């Protein structure tokens, strides 16, 4: 019994994303697949573009899909990933809003938080420019920092939380593109 040639059989050893998209989902849906699914697949370990050859290695792409679909493990096809399709077709604005700062901090609080992240030794409001007890209390209220007792001078010692670190990354990305 012979099988008809696979769309992968017609591809060169290193194929562009356009060629791979057409082989996987067809010409009509190729641009949508590249825009959405390819980003998700890259995050799940999809073979990357080889810089020397300017394309993705087709044998590795084929092998990746065989593992993804469970072909190498059994004859049962993996369940469809319908819920991920919504992520693929999200608008640019929606994807951009995911990177937007979430804690709704004013400029002074943002500046203070960024200072504390950049300089972990600055733990009291006295050691941070333009930061007072009120600013520190607002950051604590939002969950960006947490009190850790007092120092010798009686000032509250503050530590940045994981939520505060995430917010600082989002602020840097949103405001400065870093």
Low-confidence stretches: none
- Strand element count: 4
Q: Element order, helices and strands?
A: EHHEHHHHHEEH
Strand order of the largest sheet: 1-2
How much is the average pLDDT?
83
Q: Number of helical segments?
A: 8
Helix percentage? 40-55%
Radius of gyration: 25 Å
Task: Please describe the structure with a list of short key phrases separated by commas or semicolons.
single chain, elongated, mainly alpha, 178 residues, two-stranded antiparallel sheet
How would you describe this structure to a colleague?
It is a single chain. The chain is elongated, with a radius of gyration of 25 Å. It contains eight helices and four strands; from the N terminus they run E-H-H-E-H-H-H-H-H-E-E-H. The strands form two sheets. It has a two-stranded antiparallel ribbon. Strands 3-4 form a two-stranded antiparallel ribbon. The mean pLDDT is 83. It is mainly α and 178 residues long.
Summarize the structure.
Helices cover 48% and strands 8% of the residues.
What is the strand and helix layout of this fold?
Elements: E1 14-15, H1 17-25, H2 30-43, E2 56-57, H3 58-69, H4 82-88, H5 92-98, H6 107-118, H7 133-142, E3 145-150, E4 156-160, H8 162-176
Helix pairs in contact: 1-2, 2-4, 6-7, 6-8
